Amino acid sequence: MLPSSIALHQIGPVLETLSAVGIFVFAASGALAAARLGQTLVTFAFFALVTGVGGGTLRDLLIGAPVFWVHDPVPAVTCMIAALLVWFTPRRLWSDRALDWLDAVGLAAFAVFGAAKAMSYGIPPFVAAMMGIVTACVGGILRDLLAHEPSILLRPELYVTAAAFASGLFVLLHWWGMDVPVAGVIAALLGFLLRAIAIRRGLGLPVYRDE
After folding, report:
1. How many angstroms separate the Cα of 104 from the Cα of each of 92, 192, 200?
2. How far is residue 97's CA from residue 36's CA, in Å, rounded to a whole number?
3. pLDDT at 167
4. Record's Gene Ontology CC terms (predicted)?
């Protein structure tokens, strides 16, 4: 019988690492957005926290799980460390596309972990893939909203599609019987690759035209 769910113990160190990476790089992207606005350290920390845990918070609320960072201080501490790192790093060391690349790493990692956690709570595979997208995208949306920047969702290159690809591929690979850690690494790497190509080449889907 093909697996349709994941036991909590199967999340394991590989997917937990993906989650930690996602939190750190998303938090750093939030702090970097605050740096571009010339904000205070407190604002850096707030941007980092909202960006780092925003998607996971909504996911946990939707799947009926305890909100992860409320019961475990490590994610919040990770966000603060990311904020401090950006605060004490000279602005000239951050390229103009640094936020995009940090976001790309977080997007792929969170998409896979979000889908895996949803499946561990008995969420059906298709909906679990949607939870991966929520986990990956909501933090960036909140960051852009706070920074009064055009939402990353409205940029021409692939974004949600890359998250959907990573989470959907993970669910599919697991459904085919692949071990959870292996499926997670493959899906995250390929999801990041798709987003990276989109950033470098401006790859996007056709837009609606009212003709």
Report:
1. 21, 6, 12
2. 12
3. 97
4. plasma membrane
Nearest to 15 by CA among 197, 191, 170: 170
Q: What is the mean pLDDT of residues 106-130?
A: 94
Rounded-to-integer distance, Cα 192 and Cα 122, Å: 26
CA 79, CA 90: separation in Å to the nearest integer?
19
Place of tokens 């960051």: 143
Contact 181, 15 (CB under 8 A): yes
Distance (Å, whole) CA 90 – CA 94: 8
Of 25, 84, 87, 33, the C-alpha closest to 55 is 25
pTM of the shown model: 0.89
Identify the residue with better confidence: 194 or 154. Answer: 194
Fill in the amino acid letter for 152.
I
Long-range contacts of 34-41 (CB under 8 A, 24+ apart): 34/83, 34/86, 34/147, 35/86, 35/87, 35/91, 35/94, 36/147, 37/147, 41/83, 41/84, 41/87
In angstroms, rounded to a whole number, what is the distance separating the alpha carbons of residues 125 and 167? 10
Taking Cα atoms as reference points, which of 170, 193, 192, 194 lies closest to residue 183?
170
Asked whether 149 and 201 are in contact (CB, 8 A), the reply is no
